Amino acid sequence: MRTIGNILWFLLGGVFMGLLWWLAGLICILTIICIPWAKSCFIIGTFTFFPFGKEAVKRNELTFKEDIGTGFLGMIGNVVWFIFAGIWLALGHLASALACFVTIIGIPFGIQHIKLAVISLAPIGQTIVKKY
Each residue of 1-21: pLDDT tens digit? Predict the structure, then answer.
């Protein structure tokens, strides 16, 4: 079922939001100072292509230790991200969610877009794991 959901997701719009995440990552790399944000963009962009069967978790909850992305610097990075890119990616996911909610079959996709909108507000310090 996850495979079918991921294929439908990809074909019916997931590819566009994933490409937007990757575009944000490329812009971060070009500015050089934003390279730390680029890694999060590519990880979550790949997650956006095929989200079913996976979930985003905070790295410190997974590894039980703090790192640069889960501490104070990660919080500052997320604030900067929110102002310059996070709000725009979140609005894109919310617009996609509204479009999905129009049809009954699109409701699971709309719910996934809302989850991705929340992730897009503060992606630093998160990682993607398989859901069992």
Answer: 789 989 999 988 889 999 999
The structure tokens listed for 53 are: 């069967």
Residues 66, 114: Cα–Cα separation, whole Å: 27
Interval 55-98: pLDDT, tens: 999 988 888 888 888 889 989 999 999 998 899 999 999 999 99
